[in-house]
């Protein structure tokens, strides 16, 4: 198997022409060097920690193999420390709570301190039947 030719075909001709950044092109070549090699045909390549390359199967068999054998998504799967997820979840939850708080109606102190909310100021909701 002409591995160098296949890596060049995929990395430079088919996909590589879409890569404009030199560092991204270098990353693409590194991935191809890691995954497109002789051991791939022998089933000895790990695509992720604990996830070996699938055996030669049909389309349905590949999906079943992936569904049954792919480890759950975790920072470890991407080569990160398990605590990396804590930072991501913290930022995500802060954004969620900030959005929820921004959606809350705000009390206004205008008009001699009556404390009229946005809903009270806008009036009751109108229905289609009352407009006709």
UniProtKB/TrEMBL annotation:
UniProt-listed GO biological process terms: microtubule-based movement
Region annotation Disordered: where it falls in the sequence: 104-132
Domain Dynein heavy chain AAA lid: 1-84
Any one GO molecular function term: dynein light intermediate chain binding
Pfam families assigned: AAA_lid_11
GO cellular component, one term: dynein complex
PANTHER family in UniProt: DYNEIN AXONEMAL HEAVY CHAIN 17-RELATED, DYNEIN HEAVY CHAIN 1, AXONEMAL-LIKE PROTEIN
Descriptive protein name: Dynein heavy chain 17, axonemal-like
Species for this entry: Octodon degus
